[in-house]
Amino acid sequence: MHSHTLADWRHDHVFLGAAHDRNERRTWLVVGLTAVMMVAEIVGGTLFGSMALLADGWHMSTHAGALGIAAFAYRYARNHARDPRFAFGTGKLGDLAGFTSAIVLAMISLLIGYESIGRLFQPVAIHYGEATAIAAVGLAVNLASAWLLGAGHHHDHGHGHEHDHAHDDHHDEHDHHHHDHAHDHRDHNLRAAYWHVLADALTSVLAIAGLLAARFYGWNWLDPVIGIVGACVIAHWSWGLMRDAGAVLLDAAPSRSLGEAIRQRLEIGDDRIADLHVWRLGPGHHGAIVSLVAHEPEPVARYKARLDDVPGLSHVTVEVHRCAGPH
Q1: C-alpha to C-alpha distance for 316 and 50, rounded to whole angstroms
Q2: How many structural domains does the chain have?
Q3: Within the chain, how many helices (H) and strands (E) appear?
Q4: For the segment 2-19, what is each residue's pLDDT rounded down to a tens digit?
Q5: pLDDT for residue 163 is more than 80
Q6: 139 found inside a domain
Q7: Domain range enclosing 242
Q8: What pLDDT is stored for residue 272 in this prediction?
């Protein structure tokens, strides 16, 4: 008979996303691209006396800072994944970084909106050729960055079934289950970085459209109006990211389907769940604490075994209480 030691019962708490390392590399690459473009615009604007170039460079610096937060979050989470000070690992550090980036996005949208409203009532002289060229170069850099991050963003969102233990997702075929499951695998840190470069690309596209309309049709009012529209779109993205990442940080129940799957497997015969807590530990990883009441309790290991095929359930604690009352 095999004798178990204390080490046999211990396990690690590494709850990083399946694509953590890949997403980290791509984010650092985008940070480099953005920083180079930012420095070029600030230096160029200072040397050539271009206020438009200088303003765009400082605007890009806010995105570079937010992307830097995302990159450092990936690195810190990886380096401290097994640090015992973090009770359930560092999987949620990306959600914290995503929430922070969402606040930065909201501030950027307010700044763009404020500047656009001011220019609507007090128009300024626009150097169309120079401003359009700046916007075009910025758009090219942002599209390249969005392409780098977009592959990982759509992969994480559309392939939520990837996790450390590959199980067939057969217990619930309803559409809401697949939607919830994919949503629980989102990497909010990567999502935040992706939306930062997408926001910058959007402002570049809108700026080019407004500049061309003003230059060839004399619609000078269109430039600030488009700026207001862009600010509203970015604010909408920011709110969505803030809401989703905030829910994870507050340990909100990740999905209805996961709780239903646990109940289906444990509430057999007279066994009933008295208390159930389910929360997200990191992209594709969830924890569950279950309190069961049974007239004839089975060993805890058997209840845990019933949950072995639940996708994304990485950390389970089960406590069983005997019910002495009537059935």
Answers
A1: 59
A2: 2
A3: 10, 3
A4: 555 655 556 666 767 778
A5: no
A6: yes
A7: 12-249
A8: 92
Q: In whole angstroms, how far apart are CA 129 and each of 12, 43, 50, 208, 211?
A: 58, 19, 12, 10, 9
Q: What are phi and psi of 290, to 5 degrees?
A: -120, 130
The Cα 232–Cα 155 span in angstroms is 27
Please name which of 158, 232, 147, 160 lies closest in space to residue 193, comparing C-alpha atoms: 147
Residue 135 sits in the same domain as residue 59: yes
Calculate the alpha carbon distances from 12 to 88, 288, 314, 315 in Å: 9, 16, 11, 10
Q: In this structure, what token pair is assigned to residue 309?
A: 């095929």
Instruction: Return the closest-CA partner of residue 228 out of 115, 311, 142.
Output: 115
Residue 281 belongs to a domain: yes
CA neighbor of 209 nearest in space, from 217, 141, 246, 46? 217
Place of tokens 């199980």: 167
Q: Is 165 exposed, middle or buried (0-12, 13-18, 19+ CB in 10 A)?
A: exposed
201-216: pLDDT as tens digits: 887 787 788 778 877 8
Domain check: are 120 and 21 in the same one?
Answer: yes
Look at 54-63, 80-89, 112-121 and tell me which has the smallest mean pLDDT. Answer: 54-63
Alpha helices in 185-325 (DSSP H): 188-217, 222-249, 256-266, 300-306
Same-domain status, 261 and 159: no
- Residue 162: both structure tokens together: 């990837």
The side-by-side arrangement of strands in the sheet containing 272-282 is 272-282, 285-294, 313-322
Question: CA–CA separation, 280 vs 92, rounded Å?
Answer: 8
Coil, strand or helix: which one is 136?
helix
From 77-86, 155-164, 231-240, the region with the lowest mean pLDDT: 155-164
Asked whether residue 161 falls in the same domain as residue 207, the answer is yes
Quote the tokens at residue 311.
């996708």
Residues 109 and 54 in one domain: yes
